[in-house]
Amino acid sequence: MFDHRILKELNLDRFVALDVETTGLDCRKETIIEVAAVRFMNGERTDVLELLINPGRAVPHSITQLTGIEDRLLRDAPKFSDAREDILQFIASDPIVAHNISFDLGFLEYHLDKSKTESEKLLKNRKGYFDANEKHDTVTLARIFLPFHPGFSLSKLAAYFNIKPDKTHRALPDALTTAQLFLELIKISLRTDFRDIRRFIEILAPTDEPLKFYFMHLHAFLASGKYHFEPEFDREELTYQTSLYNIIGEEDTPQNGRLKTEPIDVKEVTSFFDHEGLLQKSFGTFEHRSVQVSMAGEVAKSFNESRFLVVEAGTGTGKSMAYLMPSLAWSLKNYGPFGRVIISTNTKNLQEQLFYKDLPILHSILKKKFKAVLLKGKSNYLCLDKWFTVLNEMKYRLNNYERSKILPLFMWVKNTRTGDISENNGFAVERNISVWKKFIAEDNYCPGKSCKYYNHCFLWRARNNARDAHIVLVNHSLLFSDLAAENSILSEYVNVIFDEAHNIEKVATEYLGVQVSIWDFRETLQKLYSKERYNTGVLVHLQKRIQLSDLESSRKELLMGHLNNLLPLVQTSMTVCQGFFKELTSYLRSILPDKTRNEFTSRFRYRSNDGLYENLSGYVEEFGNYLKQLYSALNDLLEVIRETPSESIRYQKQMYQELLAQTSKLDGLISNLDFLIQAEWDDWVYWFELSGRNDSDDSRLYGAPLKIAEILKEKLFANLKTAVFTSATLAVGRSFDYFKERNGLTLLESDRIRELLLDSPFDYEKQVFLAIPAFMPDPRSADYRQTLKEILKQLIQEQRRGT
Fold first, then answer.
1. What does the pLDDT look like over 724-735, one tens digit per residue?
2. Of 677, 690, 685, the residue nearest 592 (C-alpha)
């Protein structure tokens, strides 16, 4: 039971928990089939409103499967227009609690408006029906206070708090579960430091976010000191400590590394997988696979003989363990510069399987312990300098939309040990990438050891640990971006395992090539200066800080003069940029083959004789001139800041680093655009991509070296002693010739390459049926997606299988 006095202080001594079930997700196309509202007073359930609604049409089969609501249950139910007054009177002015409240209230508001009476239609300026109600979204609260939680569906959060609903996806049980979840989240918020709650209020102050009012009530209550809340056992802390860390065996690194190597015992490696071997003794259900033993033996021999191994291992082979075990045996025996093994994968799923499942198993059962590090690219890690700078300068660095989006970062930053944003499920980085970019250390921004947060820096901690680890786990993107940056991240290495090796050529081409789009320019320009409701950008920030500084007037006037020149130049550059890409897109569409002009197209090759430069020379020259002026003006400003005594302006160092980062990025964009427009190099291939929408100017230019094989041989393979390339799909017609040729392995001495082709233990002849729909349109066609959608829908509905 919840102390009713606390709820009264939070203005929650009465509230209504709400849930609706609908025929779909779009309130303008779909309708409501069930509404439940439950009134709680002093934390206890009192009144209930539960209504089935006749939608006036058949309920989709998928909705019936999900909810159990069938057409026969709704035949005698009232229409929404007949139920609207009951809903409005029940909710009245009470605070509303819902799970994903924008969905439930969005449907209610739309259908209340659609079914309003004639007298209400006369009130043209009527606002939303529930504008005056305080609103509380349990999804938003959970994302803030449980950022490490793996999912935020009502069922997953209910399970976390041991809430056991009678059923799911029915309005009344879901409303009751939401209310219980809300009360649990209130308990967590009561144990939060009131200084953090005050910070939430500061973040949300200029916004219309409903959550702001809850935090205001909470802060006033906590500040009053009426109650003291003891910290309880924190399951969230336990969850993240046991599974979310990027270093295994941090204490297991020997002090000194070897400068020579000794072979490992191949038989000892393979015996690990035998009947009665260490793996089976540790896991009684372990299944012995001869193909796994063969692969492990060949990988071990490759380390001993400094060879390259190309191995196709079908699904079910257990290839991860087959290369991990010999890699560990080698790195443990030969710890040092020649013993460290880099393991590179293509997908996040495989990376997480290796680091959070396979490597911990091996660490727990091997007698000799090892150190393994999961290392990602710079953009994955929170920069503490950026974080605290932005928080202290929100007025100039965050718009209102961004303010509400950063709340799930706040409690995570206080608890994370990795700073890796992928562990913060509450933030949903894929949907908030532009916000996240404000908190990462870009190239040329990070000052390294001179940063005041260096000893706590997540990025440098991972990198420094990677340098003395036995195993370093990366993805192909990081490995090849590091290759392009001449090993600035991974430092020197001589042993690499490439899993999902069929993706190497594609990723290498991407990272060793160049590209430009309007978004690249727009992002850089907007980071310098963006004129919205509030002016933002580093130039605006610098301008404000100069005005507030105690600089001598002559220095202040000099700096302000540079800024007064730069601000309109950035704006003009943005306008010219949009005009350039509009003309570029128009010209690229004009040179498309007639038959593809109206289709969704992916990529088309162009050459220097296609006349990009000649036909767009005026626009190229205008755009180039503005960019060069901007680049020159930024360098002039940087020079003046360099000559200004340090710390004369608040956040002077951070603003300088940020300006340097954007200036360097602009320089790269200018070079890339010129290179791609000219398209003069015969040993490069050039292509462009266009949006399928005719009203979009999102055209992108790409260039990549034709001879990627030679680059790989020269920049990567020449420096390696051992490399293993493995995947379930490497051979063509049971031959590795195509893979080896495309990836430069044929350029090496033939006796240095070994091949191994292992069949999958699965019986595909009996277990798989493959059907190819020959009637489908071309995948590049505008009709392809819709046709595919209809086929999948038909298959799912007719087969009635789990999908």
1. 999 999 999 999
2. 690
